[in-house]
Amino acid sequence: MPASFKTTCCYCGVGCGIVVQQNRQGKLEVSGDKDHPVNRGMLCSKGMNLHYTVMDTSDRLLYPEMRYNRQMQRQRVSWDQALERTAAVFKTIIAQHGPESVAFYASGQCLTEEYYVINKLIKGFIGSNNIDTNSRLCMSSAVAAYKMALGEDAVPVCYDDIELADCIFVAGANPAWCHPILWRRVEAARAANPNLKIIVSDPRATQTCAQANVHLQLRPGTDIVLHHAIGRILIENGYTDASFIEQHTEGFAAYWETVMQRTVAEAAAICDVPESAIREAARYMGQAKGFITMWTMGLNQSAVGVRKNLSLINLNLITGHIGKPGSGPFSLTGQPNAMGGREVGGLANLLPAHRLLDNPQHRAEVQAFWNSNPISPKPGLTATQMFTALNEGKLKAIWIVGTNPLVSLPDVRFAEAALQKAKFVVVQEISNKPETLRYADVVLPAAAWAEKEGTMTNAERRISYLHKITDAPGQALPDAEIICRFAQKMGYHGFDFNSFSEIYEEHTRLTAGTRIDISGLDYNTLQVKRSVQWPYPKSSAGKGTPRLFTDHRFYTPSSKAIIHSFEDGNSSVPTDETLPLILTTGRIRDQWHTMSKTGKVNRLKQHIANSFLEIHPEDARQRHIAQDDIVEIFNGNGNVRVKAKLSTDIKKGVVFLPMHWGKVLQSDLNRANNLTHALVDPISGQPDLKFSAVQVQRY
Ligand code: SF4
């Protein structure tokens, strides 16, 4: 192999550039790419240890396996045997129960090429739209809100705007731990410009709050009340941009009526934050020349997630802070390629290049391009709907690609019962650890990061090429190759690609003429440029697009952005006398998702080795709980038992569990999603993972 490769980190949506080298002993080493525009040589703890996930193959799936019934042990088989049997079972189920009886559940960590072929397979050839990914748990509320407000699922902002802003409002996010390199850029911007004001809203005083001028430690579920109160203050103090509102937005009059319904004092009481702090935060926003709102799961993972998003985007719209340097609403992508997945249409309600499933012309365009069967207009099953349909017997077969729903889905014991009832389960994975393997009838070993090539799109629409650097162990294959081989076993044409670059070129051709046109891109261009931001049409003259809506023309029918108005209530399952505490869940700094990669790197366990419950000392005292006591957290869905960590950083009445841990030594009692509800946002389908009523007691 050559001495060094430049590639991209495969963990979070920041999308840092990585240099991978082989040392004299033949071992891989990684360092930050100093020339990369995202991270400028920096890497966080996860990125710095990424090579260990590839070098240690002790947990890797090496060969296809299958079994003929659940009483059998799975046996090692050849790829042909595994894929022929899978194709035979799929054909039988589809013949007996129709194309909607099968589904693919994939991952925001899939490469764009992988998403593309899965999407083409099920929508164009199998004939249903039953493909969803764990991005449904991550970004779908932001996607819906961008479309409703701006007319397109398009992040208007770029990372360079961070250095140009003089106010950043971080709402319901902890980027210091979850998007560390992006946050380093915020810290550096703050050091260069001490006048940069940072406002954080979060029920927990996280590491991000260390930089905050104002921390609004609100009660969970009251974000809309807070955003509306800020909107009212901006209006009453003349901080809005009347000319921008008049020329480039719709809906301001109704918004005015809505936000004037509560006084700021009433809102402060509901949110349980000082009125003076809300006013101070609003003043910083109103006086800013560049104003960025940033958010992620705290707003997205909610039963009113789309409304929370819209109420935040409204603050950019009424102040005119969008489509100009240092300003805009910035949804921080959780996963490395959630955006690339949406570009190819890899969700149950999308078509390639952000075309719409309910648009007959869009369906006809894609069908003609693929030379495929007619595309169904009926939206497919979302992530949580798939497991409900399995439980009800409507969905017979599920193919799980690169994700671990038996840790990450809400009300996870329900999901486990669903997999038990499935007639046929295929698990396509790199690791032998995920809990889903217990239910797999067919196991397909997949290549990991650095063992395959492809592309990803980060949070600022930046598309990067990832090199294949080393061979996959055993017989593991790249995910896209597995899907194409299966499609050919099914007898479908259009999957005989000779290379991954051919898949990518087909995808880019399908974007031509759309708002996310990247028809000017191919692997050669990406290998030379390393990364570019979409759109990148053929006419782009070699330049990407750092910032959108600079002409203040939006993708709505009127070309105006829409200021949406709605009630500010939360529809989560409320607390009561028996379940008085609000459980919120989230990430810790050095682990990623369900730990199938980070969990095997010893260095990453040094930060926090075990799950824990963060609880306020006053809530603990009332329950006779001391530091490190084993506590049981419970509600009607299930229970969790972990050690208590007493901290005044968490709001009284709120408790926190990390989301990473699953079954350890056959016990599932540290799995946070034993306690979460299957409730979802009615527009986005995103689960309400940040608000569950629970009780806690010493065990
Ligand atoms: Fe990887 Fe995200 Fe860390 Fe960058 S910030 S090194 S993309 S995990």
Automatic annotation (TrEMBL):
Its cofactor is [4Fe-4S] cluster; Mo-bis(molybdopterin guanine dinucleotide); FAD. The keyword 4Fe-4S applies. GO terms for cellular component: membrane. Residues 2-58 form the 4Fe-4S Mo/W bis-MGD-type domain. Keywords: 4Fe-4S, FAD, Flavoprotein, Iron, Iron-sulfur, Metal-binding, Molybdenum, Nitrate assimilation, Oxidoreductase. It comes from the Bacteria. The keyword Metal-binding applies. One of its GO terms (molecular function) is molybdopterin cofactor binding. One of its GO terms (biological process) is cellular respiration. Belongs to the prokaryotic molybdopterin-containing oxidoreductase family. NasA/NapA/NarB subfamily. This is Ferredoxin-nitrate reductase. It comes from Chitinophaga rupis.
